[in-house]
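Weekly structure sync, notes
Attendees: PL (lead), two postdocs, one rotation student
Agenda item 3: pending single-chain targets
PL asked that the sequence for the first pending target be pasted directly into the notes so everyone works from the same version. It is reproduced below exactly as submitted, 365 residues in total.
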Amino acid sequence: MTTVKDITRLIEEFAPLCLQESYDNAGLVCGNPEAQISSVLLTIDITEEVIDEAIAGGHNLIISHHPLIFQGIKNLLPDNYVKRCLVKAIQHNLNIYSAHTNLDMAPHGVSARMADKLELIHQKILHPAGKLYTFSFYTPLADAERVRTAILAEGGGHIGQYSHCSFNTEGKGTFQAHPGARPYVGEIGKIHEEQEVKTELTIPQHLLNQSIRTLLAAHPYEEPVWNITELDKANPITGLGIIGELPQPADSLTFLRQVKEIFHCSGLRHSPICKPVIEKVAVCGGSGAFLTRDAIAQKADIYISADYKYHDFFEAENQIIIADIGHYESEQYTKEIFYELVTKKLSNFAIQFSKVTTNPVHYLL
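Predicted structure, written out during the meeting:
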């Protein structure tokens, strides 16, 4: 049988929890990692209607984009929907898991799915983020290639469009093994000199712990030595938003209508149409007004996101078209990502898209 942790492991391999923002609460918020799963319900938000749907449908795991809990909870009195959802979930042994800003930050995450729906080509991260580190370690000359290869195989040494990047320096290492040690080379009580290789790799934050585990498993020394240094440069393959190009230039008004249709928008707010033709498009799922300047700096003709306030639209300054399609609308296809991640490797349970429309915003037309 498949357990909760089997499913969440697949999601976190794609969108590691270390990528989430400090204010976020992604991960398993209710349930048991060891619980066996027979049926999964996918949703954007957790609401009481979604909880009831899961219970009625026999689902014992709910996967959502937005976490149910953002702030601290001091009691479980039924005085708001969050607490009522939690109480009912606990009563019915429901497991609840969320992947939020970590899925926003992940390569091929929320914004990339928006870009795919618009059929953008030459996609890249609009606002690179996520920490990078230099990971250096010392290995006996005879074992250096084997150990280095093991860590590179985990994804270390990946810089932009290049993989297996490393720098290796030969030198002389010294040590003295004390009683109780089990030295790979040298003798107890004697200072030993060994030809070693110092290997330096660039490692993204989400691969750092795995790289250390791989080093410990592959290294011949009883006490291998490594150093970790945080870099100023952001990881170019993780971050927020996507910028790309349309396969063919499009009339601006025609393109806006297509956007409205693709994202099933009841309404679409936009700044003045200052560009007659759209070629370069920037997108960001959710509240993306803070990336307007990034979109302008990268010469986008239009920036598609959500949750723009009145004064935010002035930042367009006739340099770009801002299109606010709505928060829910921009993230609705996140459920497809969950579905593909889970069903690609696991298939011994049922999985269903929630039929509840959790969008709290309605339009009077």
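Discussion points:
- Residues 67 and 98 are 5 Å apart (CA to CA).
- The chain has three domains: 2-104+333-353, 107-128+240-325, 132-230.
Action: rotation student to compare against the earlier draft before next sync.
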